[in-house]
Amino acid sequence: MNIETALKEAMALDGPVGVALVDYESGMSLGSLGGGQHLDLELAAAGNTEVVRSKMRTLASLDMDDVIEDILITLGRQYHLIRPLSSSKGSLFLYLALDRTRSNLALARHGLKRIESGLEV
Predict the structure, then answer these.
(1) Is the pLDDT of residue 97 over 80?
(2) Measured between alpha carbons, how far is 85 from 95 in angstroms, rounded to an integer?
(3) Nearest C-alpha neighbor of 42 from the set 25, 73, 18
(4) How many CA atoms does the CB half-sphere of 97 hold within 13 Å?
(5) CB-count burial class (<10 Å; 0-12, 13-18, 19+) for 60
(6) Which of 55, 85, 94, 97 is found 20 to 30 A from 4 (Cα to Cα)?
(7) Which of 6, 42, 7 is CA-nearest to residue 27?
C-alpha cells in the first residue's frame, strides 16, 4: 500500500486524532492526516523525531542488540504511538495520536503493525 492508503487506514482505527509518516533523519513529515487546532502534526512530527533519536542513542549507549517496536506516550486525554518502520532501517516512523476516550490501545498497536507490514515507501 502507498503512503496515502496507509494514513487513511490508520485514521480508520478507533479514536485517531491524527497520523503522520515521518522521516527520522530530517524530522519532516512525508504525509499526514487529521490533526487540526488541537494537534499540529508538523510540529508533533519534528518533536517526536527527537524522542526516537533519544531512544536510539540510549539503546546504543547500553549496547543493546534490539530494535524499538513502538514507543507509547500516555497523556491525560491522548495516547501517542510511535512505530519505527523496520523496512526503512529505522529512517521512517508512523506517528499516531489517539483520543483516549474513543480508542483501544491494543487494537491501535495491532493496527499500526498491520499497516506497517503492508506499507511500501
Answers:
(1) yes
(2) 11
(3) 18
(4) 22
(5) exposed
(6) 55
(7) 42
